[in-house]
Each structure stands twice: as structure tokens, then as C-alpha cells.
Design a protein that fits this description.
Blueprint lengths: L5 E5 L4 H11 L4 E8 L6 H16 L7 E8 L1 H6 L25 H15 L4 E3 L15 H15 L4 E3 L7 H23 L11 E2 L2 E2 L5 H17 L1
Parallel strand pairs: 1-2, 1-4, 2-3, 4-5
Antiparallel strand pairs: 6-7
Helix pairs in contact: 1-6, 2-6, 4-5, 6-7
Length: 235
């Protein structure tokens, strides 16, 4: 396996990481996925991960041979040291630091470091994540500067040419929906609506036009507004 022809996608089972998985499958000969269990209150996303992978393999036969192994890593300690609305039952609100209380300090830094350690052993040097500066909640570990600095540190620390690719970094949620249809047509859009989970709660009892979720949390708000803007742009 050539390192520049394989990728490891940080795959949560949500909309953004599913679009990133499709993006990687469209470009690389071999794509593996990695997810993290860190005590998130919306742990249902972990149950959706294999469902989404199976649906991608079934609906897109051109991608199925490229879809490699999935890995689920236990980062329970992250949830234990965090005091956030993603790791405990709490109302979603802004903190005194000016960040939403859904911010889990160090989460993406740890995710990419663990993913790189796994990828190193498997001969993979391209790491793909769905972070975005355009339509995000202000998380400092989603910024391009943060992630490219981290990529340099990982490459230096492992003495290997690691790259962090973030195909959604400079686009909003409406453009993410457009990327999905460009990559996989209506079938990928339907898959995202039916099977991904982006909501910060485990609620999958209500199906909206854009997918399942509580419809009230910040993640649902972003997804719904992006869907609405995308629908308007397509008319």
C-alpha cells in the first residue's frame, strides 16, 4: 500500500465526516476509518457508524473495494476529565470564555494524534477530518491554523510525512450538502438524511427534511440552516 494512495478518515457517523469519507473514497485507492468513544452523550452516533459504512458500500459499488477497515478507539479518559455539555447532561449555552459549552478541550488534538499513531502502523500518512472554520461553533481546535500546526508536529514527532486534509474547512453547511450531491448524487444525500447522526443529543425519534435530531441543539441548527440555504440555492 502506497502512503500517498491511502487515507484514514476521522469518522463519527455524522454528516460532515460522512461527506469527508465520500471525498476520500473518490480520491484514494484505500480508505480506512477511525472513531472515538469518549463518553459522549450522543453515543448513538457510534451505533450509526457501521450503518453508514455498510450503506456506502451497498449504494456505491465503485467505492466499496476502496473501503478498508474501521477502528473504534476508547478515549474514556477524555470524557472523564471534561466538564462539557457533550459529556454530561447540561443545557447548551455559552461559557464565560466565550465558547459554547459543547467545546471539549483538546478533543481534535487527541483525535488526530491517536489517528496518526494508528495510521503510522498501517502505512497510512493522510488523515482526513471534517473540521470547518466557515460554519462552526468557534471551537479553536477546528481552525486551519491549529490543525496544520498539529500536522507539522505529528510529522516531526513521528519522522513521517503526515498530512491533515480538511475538505470542508472553507465551505459552509449549504456547500457541504452541495459537495455531497456532487460526489454521490441524490443517493448520498438520501443516505446522509436517513442514517447519519449529527445531533448533540441521542434523539433519533424525529426525522426532519435534513435528517434525524432534536431540532433544538446547535448542531441541528447548523444542519437545518445549511439545508434550507442549499434548497434555496438549487431553486
Amino acid at each position: 500500500m502506497m502512503a500517498d494512495r491511502s487515507a484514514m478518515v476521522l469518522f463519527s457517523g455524522g454528516q460532515d465526516s460522512t461527506v469527508c469519507l465520500a471525498w476520500a473514497l473518490d480520491r484514494y485507492a484505500h480508505v480506512e476509518t477511525v472513531g472515538f468513544a469518549y463518553g459522549q452523550r450522543h453515543g448513538v452516533e457510534l451505533a450509526q457508524r457501521p450503518v453508514v459504512r455498510a450503506e456506502i458500500a451497498a449504494r456505491f459499488p465503485q467505492w466499496a473495494p476502496r473501503l478498508g477497515d474501521d477502528h473504534l478507539l476508547d478515549l474514556a479518559a477524555l470524557g472523564q476529565i471534561s466538564d462539557t455539555a457533550l459529556t454530561r447532561e447540561a443545557q447548551f449555552e455559552m461559557t464565560a470564555a466565550g465558547l459554547p459549552n459543547t467545546f471539549v478541550p483538546g478533543r481534535n488534538l487527541l483525535f488526530f494524534t491517536y489517528a496518526a499513531a494508528l495510521a503510522y502502523r498501517r502505512g497510512i500518512r493522510i488523515l482526513v477530518g471534517g473540521m470547518c472554520e466557515t460554519d462552526f461553533s468557534g471551537y479553536p481546535d477546528c481552525r486551519n491554523e491549529t490543525l496544520q500546526s498539529l500536522a507539522k508536529s505529528i510529522a516531526l514527532g513521528m519522522d513521517a510525512a503526515f498530512t491533515i486534509a480538511t475538505p470542508l474547512m472553507w465551505i459552509d453547511k449549504a456547500a457541504t450538502w452541495e459537495m455531497a450531491v456532487r460526489l454521490g448524487g441524490p443517493a448520498l444525500v438520501d443516505l446522509i438524511i436517513a442514517h447519519t447522526h449529527t445531533c448533540y443529543t441521542p434523539d433519533r425519534s424525529i426525522r426532519h427534511a435534513w435528517g434525524y435530531g432534536c431540532g433544538q441543539c446547535p448542531a441541528c441548527g447548523l444542519r437545518a440552516r445549511g439545508w434550507e440555504r442549499w434548497q434555496i440555492a438549487r431553486t
